[in-house]
Design a protein that fits this description.
Pfam families: Peptidase_M15_3. The chain is an alpha+beta fold. It is built from 5 helices and 6 strands. The chain has helices at about 10-15, 20, 30-50, 65-70, 95-105; strands at about 55-60, 85-90, 110-115, 125-130, 140-145, 150-155.
């Protein structure tokens, strides 16, 4: 059995993918990706969970390149390097996705923070990434325009 990624993120949770299971895709991170996952979990997820006062669902974390291709992910997805996770406060109900977004925006280091779809009040989920160095602090909103996903820059003020 693999060691937990952090106090509140299990290895199993971090690599679980129904698509990988369904299509027999190996979804195992490299040691470098594991180190990135631990950094992201410790520096972003654990402070977020403390703020929420209870569980926050990790809906996507590590994706092998094969899994990422299968789901139609970006070829440059930070999920493939263990640098990105998607979280959803609605699963357990202790914190809203809007609160998650603003907590990370105002209290955590990040490379990209994405308000994923939803509406003007609440994202459907939140994507956050963290690099080892050179984090861009990009706050974005994902929207569908004519069937294509676009990312709009958000004002951080």
């Amino acid at each position: 059995m693999k060691k937990n990624i952090s106090e509140n993120v299990s290895y199993r949770e971090a690599v679980k993918s129904e698509t990988a299971i369904r299509h027999a895709i190996v979804n195992e991170p490299t040691e470098k990706a594991l180190a990135n996952m631990r950094r992201l979990a410790e520096e972003v997820f654990e402070p977020l969970r403390k703020r929420a006062g209870g569980p926050v669902a990790v809906t996507s974390f590590f994706r092998s390149p094969a899994l990422n291709r299968r789901i139609g992910g970006s070829p440059t997805s930070q999920h493939c390097f263990g640098q990105a996770m998607d979280v959803d406060g609605h699963v357990y109900g202790g914190i809203s996705n809007r609160e998650i977004f603003h907590f990370i925006l105002n209290h955590c280091e990040f490379d990209q923070l994405i308000w994923e779809f939803g509406d003007d009040i609440e994202p459907a989920w939140v994507h956050v990434s963290l690099r080892e160095k050179g984090n861009r602090k990009q706050a974005l909103r994902a929207v569908k325009v004519a069937g294509k996903t676009q990312y709009w820059a958000l004002d951080k003020a």
